[in-house]
Design brief:
The chain is mainly α and 164 residues long. The chain has 7 helices and 3 strands. It has a domain at 53-130: Arc Repressor Mutant, subunit A. α3 packs across α5 (85-97) and α4 crosses α5.
Length: 164
């Protein structure tokens, strides 16, 4: 683990930024958001490592668990996970190699390929979810009220970006 700095580097970056440009609060907020993303994702991946998963693979499995049939076309997975088609292919490749999903032809559209979760995949989701919930998704420093506030603060940003 890296040595902790004796100062907040984002505060220092904002101070330096303000000497040259405007929008200091925006720069500070987005840099903080991106750094928190890196930190939390790193912790989530560490929690999921014993299960042979990354958070991205876990999200793909959960999506399949939530689907009615336990299977979705790869294109629909990409839409719902909001990732590029090549990313979905890579995710499914790795999950298939681990025996957590299988690919099969769509029964009504011969051109489409479905990813279907296996029993091993369902079991992996259950075990991994137990660990993530136990770790409070790496957000233990925030109260439930603060988590609600954070989600509410981020919602308009997501909405303005066309997320939903």
């Amino acid at each position: 683990m890296a040595r902790k700095l004796p100062f907040d580097p984002i505060d220092e970056a904002a101070r330096q930024w303000g000497r040259r440009w405007e929008a200091v609060p925006h720069m500070h907020a987005v840099t903080s958001l991106m750094r928190v993303h890196q930190l939390v994702l790193g912790q989530l991946d560490e929690i999921l490592r014993p299960h042979g998963l990354t958070f991205a693979r876990y999200e793909a499995l959960v999506l399949l668990v939530f689907s009615r049939e336990g299977a979705l076309p790869l294109g629909k997975m990409g839409e719902r996970l909001q990732v590029h088609a090549t990313s979905v292919t890579s995710l499914v490749d790795r999950l298939e190699s681990a025996g957590l999903v299988v690919r099969r032809r769509h029964p009504e559209d011969g051109r489409a390929v479905l990813a279907e979760i296996t029993e091993a995949g369902r079991a992996a989701v259950e075990r991994a979810t137990t660990d993530l919930v136990g770790a409070r998704f790496a957000l233990t420093s925030l109260s439930e009220d603060q988590l609600g506030e954070l989600s509410a603060l981020l919602r308009p940003v997501r909405q303005d970006a066309g997320d939903f």
